[in-house]
Amino acid sequence: MPSMRSAGLSIGAFYNPHLAPEIYAAKECIDHLAMADPPAAHDEWFPRIKQRFPLLLHDYLGQLADPLSAEALERARRLQSNYCSPWVAEHFQCIHTQDGSRTLDYVLPPLYTEDFLSRFVANARVLRDAVQAELVMENIPGFFSVDKAQMTEAEFLRRFFDETGCGFLIDVPHLWLAAHYSGGEAWETISKFPLEKVVEIHVGGVEHDRDLGGPWVAPSAPSKEILDLALRIAERAPQLRAVTLDAFSPSLSAKVLVESVQAMRQVFAAN
Amino acid sequence: MGDRDLQDEVIRYLTDARLRVTTPDALPLPTLEAEKAGRFAMFLARRYYRDRLQRSFRYSALFAKQTRRKAEDSVEGDAFAEIARDSVLGSLNAAQRVGQMAVTYLTDRDWQSTVPFSNTGAWWKTLLDYEYLHFLQTATSETAAKTARLQQGVSAVCNKFEWGMPDLLARLREGKPADDDLRREATLLFARTHSGKIYVMEIDKESEDVFRAVDGDRNLDEIATAAGLGCEDTKRILQSLTEIGAVVW
Question: What's the rounded mean pLDDT across residues A36-42?
Fold first, then answer.
């Protein structure tokens, strides 16, 4: 099982099974792969993928707003045992009701309150202990506000990282969107976050969505602006180890994936 | 109301269009934020059903060059918007309506009268029936309220086909002709577990009879009697059906 680079930044992408042959062919360009789903039983390429690329566990393990069930923790352990990921990722999200009767099947941030902070801190520790690996947490964009927050998103995350010692997986498009929809400037928004805790950076595309009436994350190439923001974050992130193209969709093309990773390599190599 | 319960109300508001229509102040949102929440809800719905139509109607998609349409494209139209405006995300009812909309879209000869359209084979309608029933499993996250008696899973369904579906699907995957040699009766059971794993399996007459005998009111003896089987055989079959989510408590 290959390991992440011990020196220098690892530049990678998400494993998109429908692009397995092209991803394998680009193995000199892609350093690591993030796994959003477990490998399908019929995925004939996965054994070769696993042999060639270090893997990052980035599956839905559970929402840390609630205690994880024994089954969820066991599933997380099994996945980690399969991937031997140097760190395991989850999200600052709360997407299904406590009784399980409703789920959004998509990311939604929690209310940034003391109660939710306590919940995330407690459940993050349990998950980290279960997988026996560093836990990194990813920021999630909100599109509307319920106006019940007791603190800003940046403060919520800072306090979480201070209390748990977990790492920060900073998603640049998510923060770009937060700035856009609040009428703020992207770097001014990003600079308020604890960049010194960043272990991994996500970059990706944003495109206009007809339902939202504005930009939203899309499985497309990151813009120059997104890459420049990522670079500025990297300069302030002494713990940074990886930059990952956050694009996972059946509509993603090999061309976009490979060209995006090449662009990422150019930006970070030149600096 | 505690923070966690409030988050639950936000999730319900986003997933239940009826709340947004009949009880617009179900959430303490200023007008602008409520309007944004409504748009986010439509975004979620379109994304959710597009994804599941893509997954479940993947065999008919193999013929997109001939039909000039794929099931997931149907969510871009007005018919879908109308469904999304008064349905609950993940409900069986919404899955049935969206699934039927997709099947209509794939078989509607009047969609573009200038474009020649022909069924790709005598099995086309059967294939769409199969994909529709599979879609009910992928698109229904609704769970049944727990009861004291066994009941059928919310989306579980048993259907007779006139084609040997496993063989038909294999031929289509391989790009080989699907001829009349594949015609045979096959009874398939479609089900989904609580964790979302989908099962489609060919079942025998005994299993079909037991499944159909489960109605939420009968106990084990009554199910066995209705199915015309002994208790031990019924229990064994019920155990298998429970494991795949076809019957639940």
Answer: 91
Among B142, B172, B204, the domain-final residue is: B142
Q: Per-residue b/e over B215-247, b at no fewer than 16 CB within 10 Å? A: eeebeeeebbebbebeeeebeebbeebbebbbb
State residue A5's pLDDT score.
82
Range 144-203 of A in CB contact (< 8 A) with B: 144-148
pLDDT score for B24? 66
Instruction: Indicate whether B153 and B135 sit together in one domain.
Output: no
In CATH terms, the fold of domain A10-269 is TIM Barrel (3.20.20)
- Regarding whether B148 and B99 lie in a shared domain, the answer is no
Predicted local confidence at residue B113, as pLDDT: 39
Q: Which of A65, A102, A212 sits opposite B4 (nearest CB)?
A: A65
Last residue of a domain, one of B85, B107, B142: B142
Q: How many domains is chain B partitioned into structurally?
A: 2
- Structural domain span for residue B115: 1-142
ipTM of predicted complex: 0.93
Looking at the structure, tell me whether residues B19 and B100 fall in a common domain.
yes
SS (H, E, C) chain B: CCHHHHHHHHHHHHHEHHHHHHCCCCCCCCHHHHHHHHHHHHHHHHHHHHHHHHHHCCCHHHHHHHHCCCHHHHHHCHHHHHHHCCCECCCHHHHHHHHHHHHHHHHCCCCCCCCCCCCCCCCHHHHHHHHHHHHHHHHCCCCCCCCCCCEECCCCEEEEEEECHHHHHHHHHHCCCCCHHHEEEEEEEEEECCCCCEEEEECCHHHHHHHHHCCCCCCHHHHHHHHCCCHHHHHHHHHHHHHCCCEEC
Residues B64 and B122 in one domain: yes
Average confidence (pLDDT) over B171-191: 91
Indicate whether B110 pLDDT > 60.
no
What rounded mean pLDDT belongs to chain A? 95
Residue B111 pLDDT greater than 50, yes or no: no
- Report, as an integer, the average pLDDT of A128-142: 97
- φ, ψ for residue B10 (rounded to 5)? -60, -45
Shortest CA gap B136–chain A (Å): 16
Read off the pLDDT band of B118 (50, 70, 90).
Answer: very low
> pTM of the prediction?
0.91
A74 — contact with chain B (CB < 8 Å)? Answer: no
Same domain as B138, residue B62 = yes
If asked whether residues B200 and B111 sit together in one domain, one would say: no
Q: Are residues B136 and B153 in the same domain?
A: no
Q: What's the mean per-residue pLDDT of chain B?
A: 91
Residue B89 has pLDDT above 60, yes or no: yes
Let me know whether B101 and B114 are in one domain: yes
Minimum-distance CB partner of B43 among A96, A119, A212: A212
